[in-house]
C-alpha cells in the first residue's frame, strides 16, 4: 500500500481538497491540487434528463503551441499538449475539480465496500459521439482494452485490477488484487488517463483511425483536422454533462484549435484578437500582460520538469541504443570526433555552470522553480526544494572540473544544444551561462515534428528535455533513464543513453515495491547515483502561463489542462 487512507475518505461524490492532496502525493499529483484556474469545469448534476439551456453560444479560436498532435487515443497519450486536447473530447470516471478535489465525471458517486473494491454509481446511460451507448459496460470495455495493451504507457495503472463487474447499466464494481491508496486518482480524466473512457469497439476495429479521429463521449466532438494546422471541435449536442444548475454543457458552440509552434506568433495572435485562448504564452509576454486589460494570464502547474540531457555514450558503442532509437545502424559521427559529455566531470561542470535562480527570472520571468534534483514538486513525498545532495550553481567549481577533465583550451569545447521553439529563450540563457566557463554552444532549434527524429540520431551532445504530468517517480525514471531493453518499456524514451547497472537495479526494486517508506529508501539511493553521474542537468520546474482574452472566461486550467466545458464568450 502506497499510503494509508480511511476508506470513507475515498468515497464519493466528492473527495475534499485535503484528502485529494494526500492522494495526489501518493500518486505524484500534489501540484495539481494547487493549480490556479480561470473558471471551472465544475460538478455536474446527477440527472442529465433535467437539462436546461443557459445563455451560451459562439465560436472560439484557441492556440496550441505545437506543430503536431501525434496521439489522441488516451491509452497512448503521454504529452501535455495531447492530454489537454483529449480532456475536451472524452469523459472520465472522475476528474479534478476547480479547487483541486476529486469529483465525479461520468461517475456521479462511488463507494468502497472494502479497501480494495470500488463501486461506481454512474450517470444514466449517455452516448458516444457516434451514437453508441455510454454505460457501465462501455466503461468496463475501455478499462479491459487498456489492460490488454502491452505497449501502453498507462498499463501499470490498471495492473492491480483483478476483476470488473457490470452490476447494471449504471453500476460498475472494480476489485483490486491489493489496496492501492491512489487508485482513484488514476481514474481521473486528463492526468490519470487510465479512467478516460475510450469507445473500445471502435478503437479495436481501426486503431490508427481512432487515434487520428477519436470517438469520445465528452463535451466536444472532433469533426475535422488538418495535420500540422488545426483541429475543429464542435459542441456535442447529446453530451450527458450539465453544470451545477442543470444547464447543458458546453456553453460555446465550437472551438477551433490552431497549431502555432512559434511562441512570438502565438503572443501576437492572442494580443491581436486572432485567438481568444493560448494553452501556453511565452513567459516574457505573460509578465508583460500584467499591465494589459485585454489579456488574462494564469500560471498552471502541470507537474513538469525541465532538464538538459547530456549524451552519455557513443551510440555506435552501445548496442542497446536501438531499443530506444529504433535504429539498428547508429550514427558514426562520434567515431572521429570527441564526445566530451561521456565524461561525468564534464557533465557535472555543465550542471554547476547553470545558475537556476537566474534562469527562473531571465528565461521563465518567474513562472518556474529552480530544479536541484530529479523529483518534481508534484511528487510531494520525494521532492525537496533545496536537497542536501543536489545540483547547484558554482562557476569556479565548474571551471576546475573542466581543467581536471583536460579541457583547457579557448574555447574549452564546442557543443550542440537541440531544442524546439518554446525552448529557445531558455537555450539562449543556458548558452550564455556555459560560455562563462569556456563552453561554446551552438543552438539547434527545430520544430517538434522534426525534433524527435533528430534527437534519436544522437548527433547532438546536449538536448533540451522535459516531462509533464509525471504522477509517479516511475514515470520520470523508468522509460527515460533505465537502460533500454529489447522487450518491455524500460528505457524506451532514452534521450541521452545513460547507463548505470546499480541505478537500473534500484529501479527494478522500486517497480516491485508498494510500500512508500521502502520506495523512498530505494529512490533516495537512485537519486544519489543520478546526482553523482549527472545523468541529467536539471534546470527548472515550470509553471505554464496560459492566456485568454478578457472577454473569454471559464476555462478550467487545473492540472495544467485547458477544459472548455464551462468556457464562455463575455
From TrEMBL:
<comment type="similarity">
    <text>Belongs to the bacterial solute-binding protein 5 family.</text>
</comment>
<dbReference type="GO" id="GO:1904680">
    <property type="term" value="F:peptide transmembrane transporter activity"/>
</dbReference>
<feature type="compositionally biased region" description="Low complexity">
    <location>
        <begin position="43"/>
        <end position="59"/>
    </location>
</feature>
<feature type="region of interest" description="Disordered">
    <location>
        <begin position="40"/>
        <end position="59"/>
    </location>
</feature>
<dbReference type="GO" id="GO:0042597">
    <property type="term" value="C:periplasmic space"/>
</dbReference>
<dbReference type="GO" id="GO:0043190">
    <property type="term" value="C:ATP-binding cassette (ABC) transporter complex"/>
</dbReference>
<dbReference type="InterPro" id="IPR030678">
    <property type="entry name" value="Peptide/Ni-bd"/>
</dbReference>
<protein>
    <submittedName>
        <fullName>Glutathione ABC transporter substrate-binding protein GsiB</fullName>
    </submittedName>
</protein>
<keyword id="KW-0813">Transport</keyword>
<keyword id="KW-0732">Signal</keyword>
<feature type="domain" description="Solute-binding protein family 5">
    <location>
        <begin position="102"/>
        <end position="470"/>
    </location>
</feature>
<dbReference type="InterPro" id="IPR000914">
    <property type="entry name" value="SBP_5_dom"/>
</dbReference>
<dbReference type="GO" id="GO:0015833">
    <property type="term" value="P:peptide transport"/>
</dbReference>
<dbReference type="InterPro" id="IPR039424">
    <property type="entry name" value="SBP_5"/>
</dbReference>
<dbReference type="Pfam" id="PF00496">
    <property type="entry name" value="SBP_bac_5"/>
</dbReference>
Amino acid at each position: 500500500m502506497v499510503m494509508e487512507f480511511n476508506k470513507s475518505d475515498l468515497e464519493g461524490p466528492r473527495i475534499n481538497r485535503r484528502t485529494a492532496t494526500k492522494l495526489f502525493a501518493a500518486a505524484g499529483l500534489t501540484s495539481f491540487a494547487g493549480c490556479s484556474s480561470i473558471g471551472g469545469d465544475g460538478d455536474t448534476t446527477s440527472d442529465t434528463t433535467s437539462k436546461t439551456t443557459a445563455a451560451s453560444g459562439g465560436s472560439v479560436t484557441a492556440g496550441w503551441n505545437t506543430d503536431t498532435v501525434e496521439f489522441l487515443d488516451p491509452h497512448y497519450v503521454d504529452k501535455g499538449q495531447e492530454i489537454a486536447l483529449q480532456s475536451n473530447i472524452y469523459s472520465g470516471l472522475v476528474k479534478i475539480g476547480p479547487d483541486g478535489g476529486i469529483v465525479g465525471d461520468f461517475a456521479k458517486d462511488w463507494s468502497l465496500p472494502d479497501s480494495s473494491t470500488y463501486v461506481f454509481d454512474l450517470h444514466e446511460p449517455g452516448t458516444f459521439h457516434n451514437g453508441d451507448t455510454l454505460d457501465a459496460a462501455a466503461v468496463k470495455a475501455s478499462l479491459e482494452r487498456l489492460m490488454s495493451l502491452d505497449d501502453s504507457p498507462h498499463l501499470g495503472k490498471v495492473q492491480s485490477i483483478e476483476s470488473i463487474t457490470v452490476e447494471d447499466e449504471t453500476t460498475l464494481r472494480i476489485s483490486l488484487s491489493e489496496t492501492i491508496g491512489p487508485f482513484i486518482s488514476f481514474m481521473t480524466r486528463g492526468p490519470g488517463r487510465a479512467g478516460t473512457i475510450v469507445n473500445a469497439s471502435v478503437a479495436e476495429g481501426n486503431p490508427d483511425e481512432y487515434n487520428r479521429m477519436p470517438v469520445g463521449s465528452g463535451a466536444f466532438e472532433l469533426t475535422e483536422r488538418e495535420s500540422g494546422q488545426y483541429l475543429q471541435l464542435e459542441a456535442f449536442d447529446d453530451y450527458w454533462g450539465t453544470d451545477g444548475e442543470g444547464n447543458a454543457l458546453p456553453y460555446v458552440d465550437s472551438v477551433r484549435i490552431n497549431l502555432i509552434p512559434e511562441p512570438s506568433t502565438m503572443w501576437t495572435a492572442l494580443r491581436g484578437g486572432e485567438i481568444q485562448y493560448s494553452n501556453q504564452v511565452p513567459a516574457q509576454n505573460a509578465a508583460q500582460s500584467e499591465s494589459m486589460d485585454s489579456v488574462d494570464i494564469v500560471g498552471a502547474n502541470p507537474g513538469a520538469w525541465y532538464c538538459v540531457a547530456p549524451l552519455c555514450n557513443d551510440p555506435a558503442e552501445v548496442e542497446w541504443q536501438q531499443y530506444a532509437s529504433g535504429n539498428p545502424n547508429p550514427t558514426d559521427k562520434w567515431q572521429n570526433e570527441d564526445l566530451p559529455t561521456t565524461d561525468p566531470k564534464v557533465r557535472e561542470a555543465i550542471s554547476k555552470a547553470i545558475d537556476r535562480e537566474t534562469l527562473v527570472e531571465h528565461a521563465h520571468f518567474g513562472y518556474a522553480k529552480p530544479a536541484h534534483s530529479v523529483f518534481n514538486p508534484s511528487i510531494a513525498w520525494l521532492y525537496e526544494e533545496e536537497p542536501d545532495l543536489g545540483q547547484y550553481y558554482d562557476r569556479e567549481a565548474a571551471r576546475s572540473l573542466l581543467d581536471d577533465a583536460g579541457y583547457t583550451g579557448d574555447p574549452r569545447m564546442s557543443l550542440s544544444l537541440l531544442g524546439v521553439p518554446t525552448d529557445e529563450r531558455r537555450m539562449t540563457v543556458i548558452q550564455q551561462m556555459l560560455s562563462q566557463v569556456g563552453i561554446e554552444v551552438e543552438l539547434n532549434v527545430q520544430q517538434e515534428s522534426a525534433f524527435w527524429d533528430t534527437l534519436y540520431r544522437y548527433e547532438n551532445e546536449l538536448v533540451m528535455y522535459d516531462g509533464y504530468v509525471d504522477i509517479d517517480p516511475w514515470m520520470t525514471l523508468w522509460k527515460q533513464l533505465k537502460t533500454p531493453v529489447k522487450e518491455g518499456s524500460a528505457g524506451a524514451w532514452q534521450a541521452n543513453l545513460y547507463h548505470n547497472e546499480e541505478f537500473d537495479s534500484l529501479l527494478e526494486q522500486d517497480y516491485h515495491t508498494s510500500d512508500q517508506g521502502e520506495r523512498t529508501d530505494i529512490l533516495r539511493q537512485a537519486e544519489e547515483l543520478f546526482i553523482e553521474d549527472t545523468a541529467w542537468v536539471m534546470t527548472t520546474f515550470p509553471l505554464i502561463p496560459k492566456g485568454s482574452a478578457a472577454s473569454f472566461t471559464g476555462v478550467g486550467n487545473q492540472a495544467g489542462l485547458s477544459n472548455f466545458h464551462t468556457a464562455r464568450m463575455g
